[in-house]
Amino acid sequence: MTSFPSAGGSGAHRHKTVVIADDSVVVRGLFARWLGESGQFHVVAVAGDGETAVAHAGRFKPDVMVLDLDMPGVDGAAALPQILKESPKTGVLLATTLTERNTRIALECITKGAMDVLSKPDSRSGMTLSLDFRSEFLLKLGNIAQTQTKPGALPPELDLDYTPTGPISLRPLVSVMPRYLVIGASTGGPRAVAKVLFDIGEGLQDLTTLVVQHMPPLFTASFAEQVANYIGVPAREPFDGERLARGTIYVAPGGRHLGIDRKLGHIVASISDAPPVRFCRPAVDVLFADAARHLGAAALGLVLTGMGSDGTEGAAALRRVGAAVIAQDEQTSTIWGMPGSVVRARQASAVIPLDDIGLAIRNLVRGVHA
């Protein structure tokens, strides 16, 4: 068993504790060096297999675990439920090479409690030389380590009517029956998105639904396939310029923005490789802003669990054209970052628990208002 000296400090300034589980000595050493150099994390132990990872979870109760899927003996997927049983508050980041097989397995792991996934470069040299990979690795771990989003100032470039303290202020729901549902989600989103769509049920036949779920490439196609199989409604990644149809769910392709455009009188999908917005691509803000521009009050925005503030500026754009925006409540969110940011910016029309969102949207589609 390999372990490391305990970290100093306590409270808000305490370094976040990490266990690294990967069968590669090189990868374990590289990750440990990056985490040490960041000044934010303390690696308490490393593991080369799933069984050892489970033991470390029970002993150290780390804030975060970096978990590879491909390990000898007990692999990452088999170890995950045992890790969360031993240490329920540990946030798990899956870091693995995303083959088609691993993509399906990783998506299942996310629905079973993993917080996020990071795609490793194809080679160790690519991992070592890629500054983007290192930055994404540290960013994802930092986000996961913040297990509860604290109220605070929004990014300075986001110019909204915002009060950081005081009671929540909601905007009224509009009377227009929505015909387009635009959804934004990140950490914890796959399970939440599927739950909401399932609960909307037959109401989906009256909606054109577009989803931005923060995921790497390959994941989104598998996610759309899982959604389609789960709820029995067509769901897939759209192609650029595709005419959007009612009764279909469109999922933003990983690594590309999904927007909306109007051509020859028809609403079509707009797929682009434009730069990330607030470090996100696809970005909820892009979809929401286009929905505001081309759909107006016929759109209904929904912001579900996720880290960061993506979607807040887009929600403001929707509110300016008279559209309603629903935010998931804090208690049922894995991370109340994205929906919390929308609520604190006073751009939410309603704050609703996950179990009740589907029914609320179904009533809105039917023209029933509480």
UniProtKB/TrEMBL annotation:
Active-site residue numbers: S186, H214, D310
Subcellular location: Cytoplasm
CheB-type methylesterase domain boundaries: 172-368
Keyword Iron: no
Gene Ontology CC: one annotated term: cytoplasm
All residue ranges annotated as the Response regulatory domain in the record: 17-135
Biological process annotations from GO: chemotaxis
Entry superkingdom: Bacteria
Functional note: Involved in chemotaxis. Part of a chemotaxis signal transduction system that modulates chemotaxis in response to various stimuli. Catalyzes the demethylation of specific methylglutamate residues introduced into the chemoreceptors (methyl-accepting chemotaxis proteins or MCP) by CheR. Also mediates the irreversible deamidation of specific glutamine residues to glutamic acid.
Domains: entry comment: Contains a C-terminal catalytic domain, and an N-terminal region which modulates catalytic activity.
PANTHER family associated with the record: PROTEIN-GLUTAMATE METHYLESTERASE/PROTEIN-GLUTAMINE GLUTAMINASE, PROTEIN-GLUTAMATE METHYLESTERASE_PROTEIN-GLUTAMINE GLUTAMINASE 1
Record-given protein name: Protein-glutamate methylesterase/protein-glutamine glutaminase
Species this protein is from: Bosea lathyri
Lineage, uppermost ranks: Bacteria, Pseudomonadati, Pseudomonadota, Alphaproteobacteria, Hyphomicrobiales
